[in-house]
Amino acid sequence: MKERFPGLRIAALVDSFNFGQMVDAFNRGVDAYLLKEIASDPLLGSLRLVHQGEKVMPTALLEHLAHKRPLIEGEAEIKVELGELLSEREIDTLHCLVMGYPNKVIAYRLDISEATVKVHVKAILRKLMVQNRTQAAIWAVNQGVVLANGRFADAEPGEVVPSEDATPPLVAMAH
Asked: Contact, 12 vs 32, CB < 8 A?
């Protein structure tokens, strides 16, 4: 349908969170994957973001990633030296993607323009060989680059990312 109606936005309201179903829905062109239990104010905010072209996911995604089974010995594991793969600004942007910030928030937090954020996101997608922001964020968590609690894996003790005054967003990924 999106090929025929390029401006079409699709929001899926589901009974319960299912990671595989969510990934499949986004691969098929869904712009928002929302649980039916969502309150009216967050629902309206999510629909506004979808209308603006953002991708919206439930906070249950972060809970899912936090409980993801770590790789066990013997499984194939690919370790990448992130500093060789991404620039410092792209790493900062990737962290914001994991935290679920839309482009406007990333631009504000990194003190760069939204257009620059889009350039960084496209470069991240290309370099990580993923198709969307969701896959990039999942890659970062799976590789141990960014922990599901929002901290960099190599962060110094006491270093908190994001800042304590930041409130976690309702949305997870923007496109």
From this structure: yes
Phi, psi of 82 (to 5 degrees): -60, -35
DSSP 5-74: STT---EEEESS--HHHHHHHHHTT-SEEEETT--HHHHHHHHHHHHTT--B--THHHHHHHTPPPPPTT
- Torsion angle of C-alpha atoms 28, 48, 57, 96, degrees rounded to 10: 110
The domain limits of the chain are 11-142
Which phi and psi (to 5°) does residue 157 adopt? -55, 135
pLDDT digits (tens, 9 = 90+) for 116-146: 999 999 999 998 888 999 888 888 887 776 6
Domain 11-142 matching CATH 1.10.3290.10: the answer reads: no
- The yes-or-no verdict on residue 172 having pLDDT over 50 is no
The Cα–Cα gap between 86 and 74 comes to: 28
Report the Cα 22 to chain-centroid distance in Å.
13
Instruction: Please name the residue that has the structure tokens 């257009």.
Output: 115
Q: What angle do CA 7, 35, 144 make, to 5 degrees?
A: 90
